[in-house]
## 1
Amino acid sequence: MAVTRGFVGRAHQHRDPRLPPGQYDVGAEWPVLTAEATPRRDPDSWTVTVNGLVTNSHTWTWADLHALPASEYQGDIHCVTTWSKLGTRFGGVSLDLLLAAVEPLPAAAFVLARSVTGYTTNLPLSELSNGQAWLVWTHEGRPLSREHGGPLRLLVPHLYFWKSAKWISELTLLDHDEQGFWERNGYHDLGDPWREQRYQGD
Amino acid sequence: MTDVPRPAVRTGAWREAIVRSVSHPNEHAVVLRLQVPDRIAHLPGQHYVIRLTAPDGYVAQRSYSIASAPSDDLLEFYIERLPHGEVSSFLSDIVDVGDVLDVRGPIGGWFVWDASTPMLGVAGGSGVVPFIAMLRHAREAGRLDLLRLAVSARTENDVPYAAELNSIGALVRLTRAGDGRLTPQDLAPLVPGARDFFVCGAPAFTSAAVSWLQVLGAPTEAIRIESFGPSG
């Protein structure tokens, strides 16, 4: 890439090593980025289903999820619009528990996550297992707000944050990669911030 | 949300755009017009990423909505100069005609409108910009009748492309010029007949505008939002 004439950049000598390339630290703020109207729904009637290429499809209620052993993520999140939020904390359950319960079939290799709004996003199954993904309902110890995906949000913090589907309701295991909402609109199928996979072809 | 599979939208590789004109419509905005080699045709509402590279390899990039119609030979951006905006202040203060900027796009296939359906656009401040691309496209297509716009801004000076908005009779509310805020009552007469609803602005604005549209009967799945944070 060519140097931009006259551009030095803000003092960036002390760039935080937790920031992937092209990202900046948004500090205490947490911008709300959403493409659709925020749904209103009572958490008590919330369910999440894991289905597709599994031995036993299963649906968890809000109470079912809370009865599972709690799990927490503490670390960083990265939005493709270039902000990162460092050292933040989410609480919920590890997705590993749900995957173990449904027993994925050997052919299952990809997941299409779906929100109550119809929003979808695709991920390889290998990126959702082994302590890499959660279903979360708290942020910094408080209930996750509606505009940030509450009551229930998928959390896949090692990928760009559009993969962490808000208002999650369904995870479908597939043997092929089926593009979700932003992916069909030109965004990357994997979305690894450390490889700066923002758009298709990156 | 409609969930009909559509063809993947093509986003181009990085390209070196040449700055062909720089103008300052007011003290806190710049309009850049760029010539992009091998440009991929955009849809009104899409955006580009502009990337700046320092001599030591440091990179900063931001997304900006396109203001020009697809038929325009050049690509136009209206960039609000944020006081501490690393990229926007550079684009506003330093960039000159003849400079080369790394750009990538067009991006986004959701917040787009092709002048074929009746729509209502609601914008806060510089959230007007994607609607200007839509307005210009609709004018060329002879379909300005399909487009209704409502805009909220602080002062006349804060309304991007005020003359073009006035020329189509857009509803403009200036909060610091005695108009008061844009209200659900303002939007009520604009909702019937519209099929698609587009809302663009800062998050606090878009969330308010979306809830008004819902109350006024706009189907949730017909509302498309483009929101921007403090990303300078």
## 2
Amino acid sequence: MNKLFENELKVINIGLKSFNETLDERKVSSVQVDWKPPLISDSSLFDVIRNNSDKIETANKEAVKRILNSKPFLTGMGKAIDVIPGMKKNLLLHAGPPVAWDKMCGPMKGAVIGALIYEGFAKTYEEAEKVAASGKIEFSPCHEHATVGPMAGIVSPTMPVFILENEEFGNKGFCTMNEGLGKVLRYGAYDESVIERLRWMENVLYPSLKKAIEKIGKIDLKNIIAQALHMGDEVHNRNRAATSLLYRILAPEIVNTNEKEAAVSVLNFINSNDHFFLNLSMGVAKVSLDAARNIENSSIVVVMSRNGTEFGIQLSGTGDKWFTGVSPIPEALYFTGYTKDDANPDIGDSSITETNGLGGFAIAAAPAIVQFVGGSTNDAVNYTLKMYEITASENTIYKIPYLNFRGTPTGIDVIKVIGKNILPFIDTGVAHKKAGIGQIGAGVLEAPVEPFKKAFIGFTNQLKNI
Amino acid sequence: MIVTGILKRGEYFDSVSLMLIAKKISELEIVLDSAAVMGTPENKSMLQTSGLLTDELQNADDIDLMIAYKCNSQNESVLISKKINEFLKKSDNTNKSSGSLNPSSLESALKILPDANLAMISVAGKYAGDEAMKALQNGLNVMLFSDNVSVEKEIELKKFAKEKGLFVMGPDCGTAIINGVPLAFANVVNRGNIGIVAASGTGLQEVSCLISNSGCGISQAIGTGGRDVKKDVGGIMFLEGIKALAEDKNTGVILLISKPPADEVIIKIIEVVKKIEKPIVGVFLNSPIELFENSKITIAKTLEEGALLAVAYSKKENIEKVFQKINTRDLELKALAEKESAKVNKNQIYLRALFSGGTFCDETQMIFQNVDKDVFSNTPVGRVKKLKDIWKSEKHTIIDLGDDEFTVGRPHPMIDYSTRNKRILAEANDPETAVILLDIVLGYGSNMDPLAEIIPVLKGVKKITSKQKRYLPVICSVTGTEKDPQNRTTVAAALSAEEVLVMDSNAAASKLAKFLIEKKR
């Protein structure tokens, strides 16, 4: 028999808020659900999901377990051509899903030009443009080579890269060293100062760091990120704490293993770039998520990435397939003199941090940068809270002090994104749409709908075919 | 005249927020007609009918917001569009500085309130069924306010709920009182020992208020949704409700309210009540009373009678007294009708009843069944005829303004009086109108300041009729209690001050109107 009459009435109100206001007024315990219709209205697709829910759940548990159990270490450095799988002399890696030269956005083109000049394929802009369009140069997404790059994300064969290893699962990951702010290749700048800095990084920074890391052996990056979250970073738009922690580990061995002049310049370079750690936090995310790839029936997102033209995602259960849509222009705080009209559509592999439960998903840990999200710490907390709605789990290592050390929302589930009509929330830097100008702002954005819709449909179609 | 359509991609508003926006738009003087609805195929076809579906809006999807309006010029259109954007901004209720976030799903809500025992669901019908099923699977009872849930889904939900010992109130259940808590459109009534099962929302409100105003009270009031007692659903929840009240130790009297149930459901009801020791009163409006002969149920003809019979049982009084009391009161109404009819001129011969409560429309039609052969309604029952044009009264006309045709893109008339207000003035202008019959339903969910809506219109009526040297009686029942946020006494007093004949029940108001019309012949 129904027990409703014997117990205190406790209500979950799904829909009209006014009903819940009445309950509040009557002092009835209740929770308001802010319901939204799913992003896809074809209910037959949801029937497919329901009919396979056990399989999906098992697969997603495995995927999330792999993400959470990953143990990413910084283990060394090398030249891209020597260490990145599939790297070739005429291959340039770029951020985001695949994109042809003629479809590339301004900053991406600029970075390609810069890389071609850096590699000695061309001497001038015009020359480089011809080479890029000639078909002799191949382009491929970083993500398809266990690599990630911020903004344009260009990796060319002779560029030095960090090597990360996921000790738990044995997979490796790669990323370049962060160039700092201002005129830099990743924002599409390619003038002499940019090339010069890249050369210095190759000739001074790289050997110094390589020696220091060899001496240290391996550096526990997951541990650094866990600490950095307690120190106000979300390791996407704020990396100050993580960079400082890394600096503390590296500094003695940089001094130990290098000439004084080189050591001083290297330490100054790291010290002056709060984002030095960004590439590594991306690498950590990459090796963790790569471990969760190719789990049959898993709807967990393993890549979210943008090439400045398109926004693309990949799911664990759908192999190497990209699901893409137009890349949006971020809502941002612009540097003086720039407006949204100057902004390039969102670009970079850095949204891999959000995919790993960091960045925008962990913004509640980073009160110092809340001006990017509306100005108050409450806004930041709300953004993180919302992301728990679309993730399969909570992180076991990355925790948010303000939320009583609750683990960050980890493992985006495309079924939840579509079903609840909540899109992932991403922190981002904004590039000028013209090559060579650089960063013009920073802000946040909601991932676009289209890639998630396509991924959901692709995923359900695959289920139907089993 | 030009039609402008605004399509807001991916912007979702709940229906009440939308209606408030719609109301604000329609209140702009330069707007001739307007709607603000989500881009479902149903809404699109409704816009089509009103000539508001622009090319752009044809492409709308379920999750897109459609706003359309008619006005006289391009300049006006631009002005209106600006205003609309302001309204939208204001109602964007993503509470930016709250620091706490409402959950977005039942699962997340259950983490916050793990021992929740009721889910109130008022999302679009297309999705409401799935949400309800999720709630049942998690062991929650369901009050399903949403309409447009398929009958197949309703049956599936109710069968599943019955097996798990849970209630599904609705779909299209607008009101309930559970453990003393008024839910959705409900009044603040005394607690007591009368339990109600109702397949009629306004009916439930009316009887619960009349009971409370008579000094008794409600133990539980379970709504089932109107379709429950029809053949397809077979009364699953109506019967479960009766059984639950029979078991409930705080319920001493059971009161059943419904529009005509299917014959097979009546048989089941009679069967179920056989084993129940508690007194049972039934109001089955427009049902043939013979069907209940020899059953345990004391049949009442009107909601008022049902409420008073339940009260008599609750107070352990002789129920004959109820009938006597009603008879005496009806004689007083006849006397009043005589006085009023003397004041109207000989051309004023027709009733114009404009209801916000659907059950009242049915009850009044029942009372007017044999008054005249020419009684019309937009929702006719029995011998009443169907109106050709719902916007135009014919002879005796009884209208439910809460019916779908009137509420497309507009709030329910219990919230938004504007459609009815216009109609009241139109009827006042008709020299053949002998009496205007109205209802005002108070309580949660309804308009919080009904006087601000109705008083100016009543003054308008007087202006019209005095100009045309006529007297036009306005009769109005007020459904509500002292404890309702609007306070029934205050509302009734203000109406009386405008010379409205305020009645305690719709039955009394309808009888007064009937006597008045009969006097005119």
